[in-house]
Design a protein that fits this description.
The chain has about 190 residues and is mainly alpha-helical. α6 runs antiparallel to α7. The N and C termini lie far apart (about 55 Å).
Length: about 190
C-alpha cells in the first residue's frame, strides 16, 4: 500500500516529466498564425497582438491536467481521459481571468475548441456566436496540431493538412479559413 507521501512524489515526478518544449512550440506556431490570420482579415495591430498572446496561452489549462494525461500520449485516449482533456480550455480561462488579460484573449482561449457547426466544446456555441478570436484560434490550432509531430504519429505535410481541414470544413468559419489559407500559401 502506498503512502500519501509516495503518491505525492509520483505526481510531482509525472509533472516534471511533462515535456513543455512541444507545448511551447505548438503555442508559438498558433501564436504566429493567429497574428497573421488576424492581419489578413484586416484587423488592427492591437487585435493582432492580442491574438498572438491568445495563441501562445491557448493551451495553458493543460498544465493542470498533466497528472491525468502525462505518460498517456502514446495511447488512444479513453473516454474518461478525454473528459479531462476537454476541460483544458475552461481551466486555462479560469487560471488567467484575474490576471489582467483582455476579454478578447480570455474568450478566445475559453472557446477555441468550439466548432462552427455547434459540435465543439465547452459550450456547443455555433456560427457567429463563437467569438471571432476563438474562430481564428480554432483554425490555427488544428493546423498546428496536424503539421507537427505527435507522440502517436508523424507530422502531415502542408497539402495533406489542408486536405484534412477541408474534409472537416464544418468546424471552421469560412471567412477565417480562407484568410488562413492565404496566409499559409503565401508563406510557402
Amino acid at each position: 500500500m502506498q503512502t500519501a507521501q509516495t503518491q505525492t512524489v509520483k505526481s510531482v515526478d509525472r509533472i516534471l516529466e511533462f515535456d513543455l518544449s512541444q507545448e511551447l512550440s505548438h503555442g508559438m506556431l498558433v501564436s504566429n498564425l493567429a497574428y497573421a490570420v488576424s492581419a489578413e482579415l484586416g484587423k488592427d495591430e492591437a487585435f493582432c497582438y492580442q491574438m498572438a498572446l491568445a495563441g501562445m496561452l491557448h493551451d495553458i489549462g493543460k498544465l493542470k491536467l498533466t497528472g491525468y494525461i502525462n505518460g498517456q500520449e502514446n495511447d488512444p485516449l479513453l473516454i474518461e481521459e478525454l473528459k479531462y482533456v476537454r476541460m483544458h480550455s475552461t481551466l486555462g480561462y479560469e487560471e488567467l481571468k484575474d490576471q489582467g488579460y483582455s476579454d478578447l484573449v480570455l474568450q478566445s482561449i475559453l472557446y477555441h475548441h468550439e466548432n462552427y457547426d455547434g459540435s465543439g466544446y465547452p459550450s456547443n456555441l455555433r456560427g457567429d456566436s463563437i467569438p471571432l478570436g476563438a474562430r481564428i484560434l480554432r483554425v490555427c490550432d488544428v493546423y498546428a496540431a496536424l503539421s507537427s509531430d505527435r507522440p502517436y504519429r508523424k507530422a502531415f505535410d502542408v497539402s495533406t493538412v489542408i486536405e484534412l481541414m477541408i474534409d472537416e470544413i464544418k468546424n471552421f468559419d469560412m471567412e477565417v479559413f480562407l484568410a488562413f489559407q492565404r496566409v499559409v500559401h503565401n508563406n510557402k
